[in-house]
Each structure stands twice: as C-alpha cells, then as structure tokens.
Specification:
Layout lengths: L5 H5 L7 H27 L8 E5 L5 H9 L4 E4 L2 H10 L7 E4 L8 H4 L5 E5 L2 H14 L3 E6 L13 H11 L5 E7 L12 H16 L9 E3 L6 H6 L4 E4 L1 H4 L3
Parallel strand pairs: 1-2, 1-8, 2-3, 3-4, 4-5, 5-6, 6-7
Bound molecules: pyridoxal-5'-phosphate.
Pyridoxal-5'-phosphate binds next to strand 8 and helix 10.
C-alpha cells in the first residue's frame, strides 16, 4: 500500500500501488525459481538438494519484502550491517523459524552485538576478530558459530585471510572454547562470465580439504559459503553448502 495520511483514508481514498504488488508476487516466484535451480543443479552433480542452504541476502530490503520471502520458504537471512539487521529482526519477530546470518565486514566494536544475535558469522577475517568473538561468547555463555572468510582472489578491495594466513591461523583458533569454526566463506573476483569464478570456488574447496587433513581437534570444515545470484549454480557444482542470493530473490537494489 502507498502511504496515505489518516485524513485521506478517512475520506475513503484508497490508492492501489500496482508496482508494489508486482514486486511481492515476484519475490515468491523468485524464491521458487532459486530453489528449483538448487534442486536441478544438485541433482546434476549427484548431491542431495538438502546439502545446500539458501541464505537470502537482505541488505537494503524492507522487512515486508523479507516477510514475503519467508512466506515463500526462506528460513535464513544474511545481513551486512548490524543496525539494519536489528531493525528487521524486531519487525520480523513473528517469523519464528527465521534465522539470521551475518555476511558483512566485521567491525571490532560491533562484535559484542553480533555474538549470539546471528547463528552464523560468515566473515571472520583475522585472529584479532576471532579472539574478540570468543571472549564475548564466553561472557554470554554461548558458543558462536563462524566461518573464516578467505580472499582467494587476493584482491586489495576485499577482506578475508589470504589462503596462507588462514592455514597459519587455524592452530591458534582451534583451541578457543567459545568459537566454533564451521567452514570457509568467499567472494570471488567479479567477472561478467560466472564460469570464470569456478577456479576460485574450486580453490576454496581444496583449501577446506587441506584444513581437514590438519586434523585439528575442534575445527569443522563442513560449510562452504560461496555463490551469489550471478554464479551460485557454479558454486554448487564446486561444493557450496551455503549460497547467498539477494538480487535473484528481491530484484535489483
Ligand atoms: C549482497 C551480498 C550477496 C548477494 O548478492 P547478489 O548478487 O544480490 O545475489 C552475497 N554475499 C554478500 C557478502 C553480499 O554482501
């Protein structure tokens, strides 16, 4: 509905917002289509569809749009900014099965508020951040699940551990009692042809295999968060267990 004043509504003026309705229809249809693509892609490479979780990337999307996605079956939202996420969490408090992931850059002074609020923090990019998360989780009496972000393309513009640094950091992170490392996350260098992202996805998967061979006591390497609207089918072919799709569900931001 278009926002109208109380005076207009009392006077009986009702303005239908056709564009808004179209968008709402589209969200449900888009969710179905993405789930179908996940189903077909996993089938093609001999995986079960349930091995891939769809996280809706909800940055800049209104709570009402997220609600539509929830009604169409979305159960995980990925947010990039704490404040925006907190507002939406409050607005969507009546969606009991909705769980929130943090996929944005982690800022040290926000960590206290991230811990416990997000079931999974995808984007831990330094030992310092991990230490802070472990400490805050300790205070809160919880174990915080995280992924380590890896800058596979070694781009200056992106965050994340370099592949060498993540291997060096893991023995330090492994004993932290309130930090549960579940796997790795990445954003490949942008390329118009998503096929060009494939080697980067493959590299992340290989890195996870190398880490598994380190036989660390607590670290798990069951999750690979990779693939967005542009390239998630290719990421799934290369072993993604979490895909983060924004535009493909909500349309352009
Ligand atoms: C926005 C965002 C996405 C989703 O991007 P789309 O291209 O809209 O699917 C995925 N991951 C991260 C970290 C993001 O910030």
């Amino acid at each position: 509905m278009v926002r109208q004043t109380a005076c207009q509504m009392e006077a009986g003026l009702v303005v239908e917002d056709a564009t808004h309705d179209v968008r709402i229809q589209t969200i449900a249809g888009n969710v179905r289509q993405v789930l179908e693509t996940i189903q077909q892609t996993t089938q093609r490479v001999g995986r079960e569809a349930e091995t891939v979780r769809l996280v809706a990337a909800t940055k800049q999307m209104a709570a009402e749009s997220v609600r539509r996605a929830y009604q169409a079956g979305i159960r995980f939202c990925g947010e990039n900014r704490l404040q925006e996420a907190q507002t939406k969490m409050a607005d969507l408090g009546d969606c009991p099965e909705l769980a929130w992931h943090f996929i944005g850059r982690v800022q040290r002074r926000k960590i206290k508020s991230l811990v416990g609020r997000f079931v999974l923090i995808h984007s831990v990019e330094s030992v310092e951040q991990a230490v802070e998360i472990d400490g805050r989780a300790c205070e809160a009496g919880i174990i915080q699940s995280v992924l380590l972000e890896v800058n596979v393309g070694q781009e200056a513009s992106k965050g994340g551990f370099s592949p060498a640094d993540v291997l060096a950091a893991l023995p330090v992170l492994d004993p932290m009692p309130h930090l549960q490392i579940q796997g790795l996350m990445m954003l490949p260098p942008w390329t118009p042809n998503p096929e060009n992202a494939r080697p980067y996805f493959r590299q992340l998967r290989k890195l996870a295999q190398d880490i598994k061979r380190m036989r660390l006591e607590h670290v798990r390497m069951n999750e690979l968060s990779m693939g967005m609207t542009h390239d998630y089918p290719i990421a799934i072919e290369e072993g993604a267990t979490i895909v983060r799709v924004g535009t493909g569900i909500f349309g352009p931001r």
